[in-house]
Amino acid sequence: MRRNIYLLTLMILLSGVNAFGQTDSIKVSLEQSLKQSLLKSIQVKTDSMDDQLGTKLTDLDDRIQMLDKSLSQTSSETQKIEKLIERVKLIEDFQQAEKDAELNIYQGNYQSAIINLVSMERELRPLILFSAARDFFQTLNAIGNPTQYPGFNNWYKGFKSYVEENKKENPSLSVVSNLVSLTGDLSAGTPIFGTFSQALFMGMSNYIDNLGKRDKKLKEQSQQMFELVAELGAYTNDKNLIETEWEAIDTELEELKELYAQNLDKNLKILGVDKAEFERRYSNENDANRRYEYLNELTNIIANRVKTEREVNAKNWKNTFYNEMAEIQSLKIRFGGITFRISENISKYNGLIDKYKEAKHIGPRMNDLESKLNSLKSAFDTAFNPLEYINAANKMYKVD
User: Fold this and answer.
1) Are 338 and 249 in contact (CB under 8 A)?
2) Does pTM surpass 0.90?
3) Does the keyword Signal apply (predicted)?
């Protein structure tokens, strides 16, 4: 069961996929391009408004200082009253500009947070990885399957008959027979590792020792099969050492999927967006341009929602959005971290391939495995850049 964990782990990233190939690479690139375009648009609009309000605040501050200086030099009571009235108006304008600047930052930051959040759904299932992951891991498993090697199946029938005929008189053969019954028949592709491989080696050694001189050809074949099984046992053990990390990655990915769903539900409620409509117009919409149009509409909903919250909850309006933005940023950083772990674990197979390239029986299969590993790595790198992803998450908000 554990040997399938790594494939299931990557499949978490691939759920809901209906088609694969070159077209999917284009789709992924378009998806990322549209997302970045929208985020850039939000940033430009926020920065432009921030610059305008910054200029206005500077101008108002200069005018207040000039008015204060003028007041100190004015002796006329009437002029003083007029200038004081003007000063109160300037201060009110200054305070309003400060509030507008703060509102602008929160609108832009919350827009960025929501766009990053909803985009994560498709980042959790990149279209491009499926076929590359499937091809690589199928080949990885096939190499460890003894039935894939010439002559093994016919030889194994004779060995298995020998085990069954002699297991009552030989305890080690009895162990082999029991383990085969428990773990599955080698002819069905049962992986060779651990206690099973040790018992199998003992049984094969016994079989070879008991072959007479007249069975010279069978003895030579049996020795070849012994070498093959020894290689496969070592290979499977080394492969399993890499695969233990997939279990931890699998667990964290499931946690991230749950957190994503929770954050999405919570923020859709804050925005007053109907989830069924969101799923119809975004999650289940196949046209990337239509999804982009919907997200553009969503940015307007976000801006109005932040503005309304400030009006009805003047004291604590920022808390409504600050905590959500912090959670979304944390989720994005965690996802960046998990993609980094996936990338590192994929790279570990390079060491496995290098170790067995010169092996007598499985060595010739390493070139094909290496080619498929390179395709998988290329597919992953097309969909993700973990360090860039984490860096972008750390810089996703503008500080006021």
Assistant:
1) yes
2) no
3) yes
